[in-house]
Design a protein that fits this description.
It is found in: Cell membrane. Keywords: Cell membrane, Membrane, Transmembrane, Transmembrane helix, Transport. Its main location: membrane. This is Voltage-dependent anion channel. The protein is mostly helical and about 300 residues long. The chain has a domain at about 5-215: Glycosyltransferase, CATH 1.50.10. Helices cover about 75% and strands about 0% of the residues. The chain has helices at about 15-35, 35-65, 80-100, 105-140, 155-175, 185-215, 230-245, 250-280, 285-305. Helix 1 (about 15-35) packs antiparallel against helix 2. The chain is globular, with a radius of gyration of 21 Å. It starts with 12 loop residues before the first helix and ends with a helix.
Length: about 300
């Protein structure tokens, strides 16, 4: 799977899924269970950060170092998956920093989160430039991969949410630790909101491209890739809701609620269809294993010839 140019990219979903568990520990388990849950959550976040950096650096390099030449026409937005994990982990780091009682621990969590954000988001933006070129030259993906056009919403939505949450954490932690100048925390908070609003606005562009592509296809077959609807849209909903929380704006709060309800409805519908496919045994397909079987057959033919 690691050597497959497409399937290997899905390893990047591991730190993203792990980050959601860390978030729920921050929101639910720490208030209910106390001190040990706080330390356990911080340890889980550190492990998640290591996994996220490893996948973000290693998988793109493996793609570069493959012997077979990669055609631009074969590129899909799944190239973003191993990269976005660092942005998601950075957003979780802001939540973890808010629950840590030690200001120094919280400070280093915020600093590392900014580093993770800086690793993931600029690299994701570069990949999105390549993807836009692919869409322009080779047109929208085939129906089986059409859902992937929603994936650029992930780094933009989560990047905006992370920038705002990290700025909010810096505003509270920097004065306690005498970090930089007295007003540095406020500056980070204001810049975080500005960056979040810009990324949210850029997400509107990709939301239009994705929606227009889906509308043009009209009907397309269900496959496991439909889960690609959920995370990008959910990340964009988080960014929208966070803007609504920072601004005295009913528009963003209502819009964030609408997008969130759409995500919930999609999750229910896709879960039901997926469960039906699991029961029938028709939903899962691993191209990397098919390639492996083909290689084994070739090796078997060579051995017989010899």
């Amino acid at each position: 799977m690691i050597t497959h140019p497409t399937q290997s990219m899905f390893i990047g979903t591991l730190p993203m899924g792990f980050a959601t568990i860390v978030n729920m520990f921050c929101f639910v388990c720490v208030p209910a269970w106390g001190e040990w849950a706080r330390d356990f959550t911080w340890a889980m976040w550190i492990i998640d950060a290591v996994i996220a950096v490893t996948t973000a650096l290693s998988l793109p390099f493996l793609l570069m170092s493959r012997r077979d030449e990669t055609q631009l026409s074969s590129m899909t937005a799944v190239w973003l998956l191993p990269i976005v994990g660092t942005v998601v982990t950075a957003s979780s780091g802001a939540l973890v920093a808010e629950i840590l009682p030690n200001p120094q621990h919280a400070l280093w969590t915020v600093i590392v989160s900014y580093v993770l954000w800086g690793i993931g988001l600029p690299l994701a933006l570069m990949v999105m430039v390549i993807y836009l070129q692919r869409l322009t030259l080779h047109k929208i993906p085939p129906k089986a991969m059409i859902v992937s056009v929603f994936l650029p919403l992930g780094p933009l939505g989560q990047g905006g949410f992370g920038a705002m949450r990290l700025g909010k954490a810096a505003q509270a932690i920097f004065p306690k630790t005498n970090t930089l100048e007295d007003i540095s925390g406020q500056v980070f908070y204001s810049m975080g909101f500005l960056v979040g609003l810009i990324l949210w606005s850029f997400g509107l562009v990709w939301l239009f491209f994705a929606s227009a592509s889906i509308a043009r296809c009209k009907k397309f077959p269900f496959n496991i890739g439909w889960w690609g609807f959920l995370f990008p849209t959910g990340a964009y909903a988080s960014c929208t809701c966070q803007i609504g929380a920072e601004l005295p704006s009913a528009f963003f709060r209502i819009l964030g609620t609408i997008i969130t309800l759409c995500v919930v409805a999609l999750w229910i519908a896709i879960s039901m269809v997926t469960l039906k496919g699991v029961m029938a045994g028709t939903i899962f397909h691993a191209p990397c294993l098919a390639d492996l079987r083909a290689k084994e057959k070739e090796r078997g033919v060579v051995v017989k010839v010899v």
